[in-house]
Amino acid sequence: MIRTHKFLMRPTASQAIALREMLDDHCSLYNGALQERRDAYRHTSKTSIKYRQQSAQLKDIRAFAPERQGRWSFSSQQATLRRLDKAFAAFFRRAKAGEKPGYPRFRGVNWFDTVEFPKDGDGCRWNSTPHDPVTRVRFQGVGHVKVNQHRPVVGKIKTVSVKREGRKWFVVLTAEQVQPEHLPATGSVVGIDLGIASFLTTSNGEHVDNPRHARKAAAKLEAAQQALSRFPRRKAKGRTRNHQRAVEKVAALHGKVRRQRLDHAHKTALGLVREHDLIAHEDLKIRNMSGTPMPKPDPDKPGAFVPNGAAAKAGLNRSIADAGWGVFLTILHAKAESAGREVIAVNPRNTSRTCPECGHTAKENRPAQEKFHCLSCGHQAHADEVGALNVLRAGLVRRNANQA
């Protein structure tokens, strides 16, 4: 089992400069390798360059620019080239599947924020001073950097990464652990219905409030983004210190919202995993749910369009993104795996329109957002509770079918 640990680093002023230079040089390597692939395909009879060929050139690149590329870890530079190779592999996979391809793009200095070291001890060393009471991590070309280790690292460390978030620096570790002991069985099963009014509703009738972190921070974000927009667009070399502070202010606010959303998702998922042996949820296609509506041409006026509800859909999309369903479900599955719980995803179709008493399904059974009223038997309940109950029943049917 692979687990990830993220710790805040406390670099000195000179170490922070070296870390920025390391990111800049790896970014230049990434962009140079991307340019080489583009040129080879366009001007050399559509020739494709692979990772193996570009990795073989690293020795010459390091010798040609020892002050830029030669000072960093060879393995970390190989990892950067693999990162580009993975981007191209994903591009061709999406193009072959008929999806939006998303051709790999050049990275600016503010959009390249991670350098990976594929192996602990090769260009980096976690806890490089074990006899020192302060935990440190050593990077080639940077030195021994202090780390605020707030929790123990269990297992064998596989990879070490440096990540920049605003003005802060983090070290990210992946460790291979043995399967932890499972939690004792509780005999309880539950279905959950994810929503906007309530973050989730359980089949037991419990409602978890939607914290709406982004909406609460909207006023501060709007003010910070307005302050940033007052600076004219300039080249990177012409940015002033005030402009950089405005950029960092916006990034800091977004970072706070992200951390609040993660904290809420972890606590909610942990509560479900501790109390229930089986958790059933809807298999939501979040990307499709947050798509924009298609334009509707006006048949009477060529070139004109009729209202298609784009403004209302944009508000719904913001609420869906603010809820963070995808992050929550990812965390829920990870915690359930560690605890030995079972999580089942079921088809969400008509879960909140089907009567749990008589099985009648109709759109009219849900006359309002929170109200469910069966037209066949007259059963009334909260619509989200009905959806969660139907999700649980579908999950139990699927589990029994898999066991059979």
Total of DSSP H or I helical runs spanning 4+ residues: 11
- Which percent range fits the helix content? 40-55%
On the 0-100 scale, what is the average pLDDT? 91
Give the beta-strand count.
Answer: 16
Distance from first to last alpha carbon = 28 Å
Major pleated sheet: 7 strands, antiparallel
Number of domains: 2
Low-confidence stretches: none
- What is the string of helix and strand elements? EHHHHEEEEEEEEEHHHEHEEHHEEEH
Task: Return Rg in Å.
Answer: 26 Å
Read across the widest sheet, the strand sequence of neighbours is 2-6-7-1-5-4-3
Describe what this molecule looks like in 3D.
It is a single chain. Helix content is 43%, strand content 20%. With 404 residues, it is of the alpha+beta class. The protein folds into two domains: 2-176, no CATH class; 189-217 and 248-403, no CATH class. Helix 1 (13-43) crosses helix 4 and helix 7 crosses helix 10. The model has no long low-confidence stretch (mean pLDDT 91).
